[in-house]
Amino acid sequence: MAYLNDRVLDNGLTVLDTEADRLYLCNNSLSVANATPPTYTEATSTYACGNKTGISIGAPADGASNGRRVTVGAITGGNISATDTAYKWALVDSSNSRVLAAGTLSASQAVTSGNTFSLAAFDITLPDPA
Q1: Are 28 and 88 in contact (CB under 8 A)?
Q2: Is the pLDDT of residue 82 over 70?
Q3: Which of 44, 58, 79, 118 is least crowded, fewest Cβ atoms below 10 Å from its Cβ?
Q4: Exposed / middle / buried, residue 75 (Cβ in 10 Å: 0-12, 13-18, 19+)
């Protein structure tokens, strides 16, 4: 595929802006090394270290080098629910029990149950087709 109009990319990213309502931190205890949580139950229960509701995701915009992106706003005051090491993040649509996007944290974080966590803002980008 040689071309996708920005509108096509934007509509894919708009799902994150309109449906993602919670970010989870997840540990790295998955059976496949460096895998991200592929199911809602894994992201929100099995591998969850903590979560944050009321997240802010911006509208689609030009990517840093190409494509289109959304920016997940900085997270403060997320709740830690397990003492572990967080390696991954997962954005979920809790109303429909879906993982919408997941990835690796820029640096792992040792977390302690009962504490809070913060994350810097980050981008999710859909690149232009090659």
Answers
A1: yes
A2: yes
A3: 118
A4: buried
Half-sphere exposure of 82 (CA within 13 A, CB side): 15
**Interatomic CA distance for residues 87 and 65, integer angstroms:** 26
Report how far residue 121's alpha carbon sits from residue 126's, in angstroms, rounded to the nearest whole number: 17
pLDDT band at 34 (very low <50, low <70, confident <90, very high): low
Percent of residues, the chain, with pLDDT higher than 70: 93
Burial of 62 (0-12, 13-18, 19+ CB in 10 A): exposed
Using DSSP's 3-state secondary structure scheme, residue 86 falls into strand
Q: How many C-beta atoms lie closer than 10 Å to residue 12's C-beta? A: 13
pTM, rounded to two decimals: 0.90
Tally the C-alpha atoms within 13 A of residue 10's C-alpha that lie toward its C-beta: 8
d(CA 33, CA 30): 7
